[in-house]
Structures are given as C-alpha cells and as structure tokens.
Amino acid sequence: MEKMLQIKNLHVQFSTYGGRVQAVRGVSFDLHKGETLAIVGESGCGKSVTSQSIMRLIPTPPGRITSGSILFKGQDLTKLSEKKMRDIRGADISMIFQDPMTALNPTLRVGEQIAENIMQHENISKEKAKEKAFETLELVGIPNPKERLKQYPHEFSGGMRQRIVIAMALVCNPEVLIADEPTTALDVTIQAQILELFKDIQQKTDVSIVLITHDLGVVAQVADRVAVMYAGKIVEIGTRRDIFYTPQHPYTKGLLRSVPRLDLYESELVPIAGSPPDLFAPPSGCSFAPRCPYVMEVCDRMYPASTKLKESHQVHCWLQDERAQKFVTTIS
Ligand code: SF4
Ligand code: MG
C-alpha cells in the first residue's frame, strides 16, 4: 500500500517556566493512501501536538521537534524551510480545526475566502478560482452554492460552517487531510452528517485522513485504522476491528469500557481510575503502570517494546511480550 506519510520516532518538547514538557515521546506510524487513521486518547496525550508537528504548526518557541522525521513524498518535513512548508500547507497537506469560526474570516464573503485560498497556491484567475470554489461547495454538500458563495460566515449554521471549512481545506486537492476534533463542537446529528461527508469525500478524492479525536464513537464510524496514544506515545495500533474486537493494551481496554453501550440496558460509564503521568518527568517504564490493574514488576523498570500480534496490530505492553518473565527473573 502506498504510504503518504511516514512518521518515525518523533519527539516534541515544550519549554515552560516549570521545565520541559515531553509532549510527544517517540511516535511512529504510517498513513496509507486513501485511508482514515484515527489517533485517539485523553486530552494532553500528545495527539494534537503530533498532528500540528506534521503541519509544522507547533508554536516555536516554546515548542520544538527535538528528533525524528516526518516523510511526505520522500522529503522530511521537519527539515524544510518555512517557505517550502507554506507551499505544502493547504496545497498538499491541509488541516481542519475544531472550531470553524476560528478558521473563517467573519468580514469576508465565503466565496472570496475560498477563492483567495486557491489563489495563494495556484496561479489561476479570480474567475477560475470562483468556479472552483463553487465546485468545492457542491462537493461538501452545501445547497445553492451559487447564492451561498455571496454570504458571510455568520449567515451559516454551525454544521454548514464546518462544511465550508472542509471545503476550504479541500479546494487545492490535498493528498493528506488532518482533522483535529472536527466534530467536537457540533451536536450529534450534525456530527453524524459531517462524518458521512468525510467518507463521501474520501470515496470521491482518495484523500488520506488523519483524524484526531477523543471520541470512540467517531472512530467507530469512520476510521480504517486506529492509533491509541497515552502520555506522548502510541501504545497500540491496529485496524478498527483489531482495536474494537481484540484490544490488547489495558489502556485501550479501559477506554473501550468507558464508552456507554447502546446495547446494554444500563449503560454504565466506567472511568479509568487515576490520571496520566506528569510529562515534565515521564517515567522510564510503562507510563500506564500507576493506573494499570495488571502491573508487574518489570513494567516500572523498562518501557515495553512493540509486540507484533499480527501484521496490522501492534502493542506496547509487557503482558504481550514473552521476554517479560525473563526480565523479571534476571533483574531481581
Ligand atoms: Fe500494564 Fe505493564 Fe502492560 Fe503497562 S506494560 S499496560 S503496566 S501490564
Ligand atoms: Mg487536542
């Protein structure tokens, strides 16, 4: 399968008055052509920082990619100049944020905003750009695009506004779309429509999507593969089936248990006890150890390596690593 992005051993730090926060600590994954990869985890797990790193949108300072690489079409994005990166942003890799209002200029008509976006990246006339804006509004399912192009952002409902933001992100035919909590600000019905729209667009354009979310319902609806992040690391990655039907990491299992189930009479939310570790001084062993019901001696001492359960499914947990026993006996 063609790889659109290859992220290798990415580390991101933030310098603060309190010290250095290690927000992303060795994240690696590939994004395949035409797939949706969801990155899930609690807030502060590093999922947004990972996606901002791909776009090189981490505020520097205080943030900094300290090591690792992000390959896109053979070039390492971490090494590109800001000017080259500006050409890539929007044209090759686009991003959609949670709040549509921050992405739109309230004083400009929607059609002009979209056309301006195109003209930043492509050398075409204003007329051609407007035509393209029209086609893109059609693609994202906005009725009467001709009339709508003349309106201002405040004249649209929240759901329609998010469609416009998606249209802006898609208008230059990017190969990769990064969506950070794209439906969190919307109510449930609209959310479902926007997720349907993502699927529809992907079928039409074969764009590859990285979807950042804390919502497993969203993941279940649209993801092909799922990466579960905890304390700055990916602890488990697999197909949607792998993660939902045969989760192996205790944290993934905990997340799935905390989702209310419609098929149970009394859907009980089971929160995971405890809180994530302090990323000023992350533990050298498994970061989930203080919250893990299965913690063993070795867990505190060494971070578990990746265990390949099958080609699509990998996990970092000593429970799945046959060397755990050996380490316990040799250490003690
Ligand atoms: Fe729990 Fe140990 Fe697995 Fe970490 S490595 S999740 S502490 S069993
Ligand atoms: Mg976030």
TrEMBL record:
<keyword id="KW-0472">Membrane</keyword>
<dbReference type="InterPro" id="IPR027417">
    <property type="entry name" value="P-loop_NTPase"/>
</dbReference>
<dbReference type="Pfam" id="PF00005">
    <property type="entry name" value="ABC_tran"/>
</dbReference>
<dbReference type="GO" id="GO:0005524">
    <property type="term" value="F:ATP binding"/>
</dbReference>
<dbReference type="InterPro" id="IPR003593">
    <property type="entry name" value="AAA+_ATPase"/>
</dbReference>
<dbReference type="InterPro" id="IPR017871">
    <property type="entry name" value="ABC_transporter-like_CS"/>
</dbReference>
<dbReference type="InterPro" id="IPR050388">
    <property type="entry name" value="ABC_Ni/Peptide_Import"/>
</dbReference>
<keyword id="KW-1003">Cell membrane</keyword>
<dbReference type="GO" id="GO:0015833">
    <property type="term" value="P:peptide transport"/>
</dbReference>
<dbReference type="Pfam" id="PF08352">
    <property type="entry name" value="oligo_HPY"/>
</dbReference>
<keyword id="KW-0067">ATP-binding</keyword>
<dbReference type="InterPro" id="IPR013563">
    <property type="entry name" value="Oligopep_ABC_C"/>
</dbReference>
<dbReference type="GO" id="GO:0016887">
    <property type="term" value="F:ATP hydrolysis activity"/>
</dbReference>
<dbReference type="GO" id="GO:0005886">
    <property type="term" value="C:plasma membrane"/>
</dbReference>
<protein>
    <submittedName>
        <fullName>Uncharacterized protein</fullName>
    </submittedName>
</protein>
<keyword id="KW-0813">Transport</keyword>
<dbReference type="InterPro" id="IPR003439">
    <property type="entry name" value="ABC_transporter-like_ATP-bd"/>
</dbReference>
<comment type="similarity">
    <text>Belongs to the ABC transporter superfamily.</text>
</comment>
<keyword id="KW-0547">Nucleotide-binding</keyword>
